[in-house]
Amino acid sequence: MTRIYILLALIMLIWGFNLSALAVLVKNVEPITLTSFRIFIAGISVLIITKIMGLFRFPTKNEWKTIAII
Asked: Does pTM surpass 0.85?
């Protein structure tokens, strides 16, 4: 149970820091650059989490076709 509270506190700290960092970044960075960076970080995070959980797999040939169309 203690681990859950520690993780919750960590998430709260990250969330709080995110708001203040965003206020500074919006004044100094172009919106498209900021959005691209956020999407890149999200993708890397998902990759790391799926690797740790053992859920990572490469797309099949059919899935690559769908990805290419998108």
From this structure: no
